[in-house]
Amino acid sequence: MSASPKLEGKIVLVTGAAKRIGREIALRLASEGARVALHYGESREEAERTAAECGGAELFQADLESVPQIRRLFEQVRQRCGGLDGLVNNAARFTRFNVLEIEENDWDYVHSVNLKATFFCCQSAARMMQPGGRIVNISSLGGLRPWAEHVHYCASKAGVIMLTKALSKALAPGITVNTVAPGVIPFGESDERIEAMVRATPMQRAGKGSEIADAVVYFLTCPDFITGQLLAVTGGLEHR
Ligand SMILES: NC(=O)c1ccc[n+]([C@@H]2O[C@H](COP(=O)([O-])OP(=O)(O)OC[C@H]3O[C@@H](n4cnc5c(N)ncnc54)[C@H](OP(=O)(O)O)[C@@H]3O)[C@@H](O)[C@H]2O)c1
Questions:
Q1: Domain 11-231 is of which CATH architecture?
Q2: C-alpha R_g of the chain
Q3: This prediction's pTM
Q4: Which of 3, 13, 110, 167 gives 20 to 30 Å between its CA and that of 148?
Q5: pLDDT digits (tens, 9 = 90+) for 130-151
């Protein structure tokens, strides 16, 4: 794929980019000519490998549960990259619980990263960005459809969708904020529930990380009249 002139030289931070969807996004942005700032939490080796494959992306470690560490992350991006043009909030947690058994720490484990960190990363980015800045939040089909064993996760991702809409108003006209909602995007893992969801998907297959990256590139390069929008990359599953 040839480089997009719109992304050439743009500094884009991708959170949780060591592996899986985040890695696919980082590799794609690098292939489009962006200067990727690659964040990771614990997956240092995978992050180093992905950064090398991105042509030597700058690496940043932070535990996104911690707002002070989020502040430090963005300060380091400012110092080492000299600014920020785009942010892709990809990092998240996913757990499964019987709703009657979930405890406060189980709720906080998911919400501290999926919703709270997404907000504080958006805020930190917005403080740094010049007019023309772009934010893409990765939400989920689970923020659109109710899943009985993932009530806490669904609530966090529905929160990301509304956060995106509200921020798009708050940060206009300088910065666009949009969200990509992936459907089933497995990386080798498979169980009965995943297989059932794939069978229910109108397109009759699972999605690929590269297809999430396509949607992210779209929001990073589209007209700035497109803001506060959700793009579901689900093979149509939310309509079942
Ligand atoms: N895969 C799917 O089928 C699917 C479906 C719907 C939505 N999504 C969404 O798409 C995005 C990527 O999905 P994925 O399956 O590739 O994600 P994932 O592997 O579960 O998580 C991505 C990364 O998030 C980082 N992370 C989590 N907690 C963190 C923390 N406290 N501090 C720093 N980093 C943290 C981890 O980085 P380290 O490994 O470096 O610690 C992890 O590698 C997520 O927002 C997810 O909710 C995925």
A1: 3-Layer(aba) Sandwich (3.40)
A2: 17
A3: 0.98
A4: 167
A5: 999 999 999 999 999 999 999 9
